C-alpha cells in the first residue's frame, strides 16, 4: 500500500485533486464523509453527542443537525474539544477499517486519505503517510469560492477560512504542494504529474 495524506484549507481544491487521483486508480477515503457516517442515527458517537450537547442538536427525524451543532461549537474551543473527543476516535476506527479493506482487496493500492484537519492532528496515530500533499490557494481565492460556489455571505466565508490553521502551517508539513489558484487545467496537470511521480517511485521500490 502507498498512503497519501491529502490536506488543504476549505475551498482549496482538495476534492478536485482527490477526484483526479481516483480517476488514475487511487482509493479515496474522505475524513469529512466518515465524520458524517459515525454520527448517523444509532451510532454510539451520536448518543454521546446528545448526552453532551442535548437533544436540541437533533432534527425531527432523529438525524444530527450539523448546522445547529456547528453554531454551538464554532468559536467555543472547549465545546469544540468535547465534540472532537467524541468524533475523532470514531473516525480513526472507521479509517483503519477502510484502509484494511482496501489493502485486502488490492495489496498495492494507492490510498488517498483526504483529511482537512491533518495539521490539527485529527489523524490516526498509527498512520504513516508515504506522501503528504497540500492543496494551496490564497485566502482571497478561498473566500471567493465559498461565496460564489457554496453560497456563503462574505463575512461568514472569511470567518470559516480564518477558523482553520493558516496555509503556512500546512505548507510546513507538505511533501508536495498543488497550487490551485490557477485554471482547472493547471491543477489537473500538477495532479497528473504527482501520479506519474508515485508510479515511478513504486516501480523503483
Q: How is this structure best summarized?
A:
The protein has helices at 14-24, 31-37, 44-53, 66-73, 77-105, 139-150, 154-163, 167-173, 184-204, and strands at residues 2-8, 27-30, 110-114, 131-136, 176-179.
What does this structure look like?
There is one protein chain. The chain is α/β, with parallel strands linked by helices and 205 residues long. Helix content is 56%, strand content 13%. The protein has two domains: 118 residues, P-loop containing nucleotide triphosphate hydrolases (Rossmann fold); 75 residues. It has a five-stranded parallel sheet with strand order 2-3-1-4-5, with helices on both faces. Helix 1 crosses helix 9. It starts with a strand and ends with a helix. Its main location: cytoplasm. It is found in: Cytoplasm.
Biggest β-sheet description: 5 strands, parallel
Structural class, judged by helices and strands? alpha/beta
Order of helices and strands: EHEHHHHEEHHHEH
Low-pLDDT residue spans: none
Helix content: 55-70%
Give the C-alpha Rg: 18 Å
Could you name the CATH class of the largest domain?
Answer: Alpha Beta
Query: How do the strands of the widest beta sheet line up side by side?
Result: 2-3-1-4-5
Number of strands: 5
CATH fold topology of the largest domain: Rossmann fold
Amino acid at each position: 500500500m502507498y498512503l497519501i495524506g491529502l490536506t488543504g484549507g476549505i475551498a482549496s481544491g482538495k476534492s478536485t485533486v482527490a477526484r483526479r487521483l481516483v480517476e488514475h486508480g487511487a482509493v479515496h477515503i474522505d475524513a469529512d464523509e466518515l465524520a458524517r457516517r459515525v454520527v448517523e442515527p444509532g451510532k454510539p458517537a451520536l448518543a454521546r453527542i446528545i448526552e453532551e450537547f442535548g437533544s436540541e442538536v437533533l432534527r425531527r427525524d432523529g438525524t444530527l443537525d450539523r448546522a445547529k451543532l456547528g453554531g454551538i461549537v464554532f468559536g467555543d474551543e472547549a465545546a469544540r474539544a468535547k465534540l472532537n473527543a467524541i468524533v475523532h476516535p470514531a473516525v480513526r476506527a472507521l479509517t483503519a477499517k477502510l484502509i484494511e479493506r482496501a489493502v485486502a482487496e488490492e495489496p498495492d493500492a494507492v490510498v488517498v486519505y483526504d483529511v482537512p484537519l491533518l495539521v490539527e492532528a485529527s489523524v490516526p496515530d498509527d498512520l504513516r503517510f508515504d506522501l503528504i500533499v497540500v492543496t494551496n490557494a490564497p485566502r482571497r481565492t478561498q473566500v471567493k469560492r465559498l461565496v460564489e460556489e457554496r453560497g456563503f455571505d462574505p463575512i461568514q466565508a472569511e470567518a470559516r477560512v480564518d477558523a482553520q490553521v493558516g496555509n503556512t502551517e500546512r505548507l510546513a508539513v507538505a511533501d508536495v504542494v498543488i497550487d490551485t489558484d490557477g485554471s482547472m487545467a493547471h491543477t489537473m496537470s500538477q495532479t497528473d504529474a504527482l501520479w506519474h511521480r508515485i508510479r515511478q517511485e513504486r516501480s523503483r521500490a
